[in-house]
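Deliverable D5.2: sample structural annotation.
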Amino acid sequence: MPTIPKRIHIIGSVGSGKTTLARTLSTATSIPYHELDNVVWERRLGGDRRRTDEERDAVLADLVKGESWIIEGAHSSDWLEESFRSADVILFLDTPYYKRMKQITFRFIRQKTVRESAHYTPDFTIFRKMFRWNTYSKGKRNRISSSYSKTGVTRISCFTIINSPSIGPRERRNAMYKYTLCFIQRNDEILMLNRDKPPVLGLWNGVGGKIEKGETPSECILREIAEETGLHLTLEQIHYKGTVSWSNDESVTGGTHLFTATIGSSVTYLTPIKTLEGLLDWKSIDWLSIEQNHGVGKMIPHYFKRMIEEKNGFHHHFSLEKGVICSYSYKEISYIDNNLSFHK
């Protein structure tokens, strides 16, 4: 496993996924992350106050003194030179322009419908400003690179998000992993779906479905959860757990991205519920962990317990012969695999 940098500075334009990436890396490494907006602004119940330059610089100086940190923000001004100089690695999140515009739009909708919190009032004035900031940032790459050179940073790593900051499968595997599957946990139970259609007719399985054109796996699973259960979860509530693939005659024939999700014990979700897809009901983790459980999808007993108990994700692979599992293997996802793809 590669050495994990302890001081990471993430920059990128509005809507590039900086905060999501910072949260993902923070979860994977237990390194605290900090938003630069919270350095510039003092958050107060009576209304936010913009710090003076001296106050802002003092807050940043205190942060970068730490042994380990993740700092993210769209700012690239001279006042950040201390952070750039102290960073082990600087990540420039250079996601495509159209993806940033899409993220800005979706985030605005989530905030307007109170499905996502915001430090600002999500009105159309700020929405238009975000579009202008994003357009301006299209020509910002050279100025950012120039800013790096002034800090004396010698190692600059840029990365391209393959699917989502929380998902790391390589592009070459995208064609194989066409599906998503999620196990939603509340206390010691998992919300399962007994499907009315093949290939798992009459068996309990997680919720999920096929990735649509232009969707990332995380976008797909959030959509599928909403469609199949009526639960509207956020990106922060789902956890990437790797992949499941299967093959016949040594040729891979399919695969799915694996997720878990957590909802609070205070969430009321009464079951059983009959849906167009089948029957939803809560099943105990102990019951689902039984190795010889023939009431669930045949692959689930092999990876379920590891998926629930282990923090890291795994690649699970099954070899089948005439629909019968002949062998099963798994491999832990490396740090880079699980989070991002580096390009020097």
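Annotation notes: The chain has two domains: 7-160, 171-338. The longest strand covers residues 251-262.
The annotation will be released with the project's public dataset once the embargo ends.
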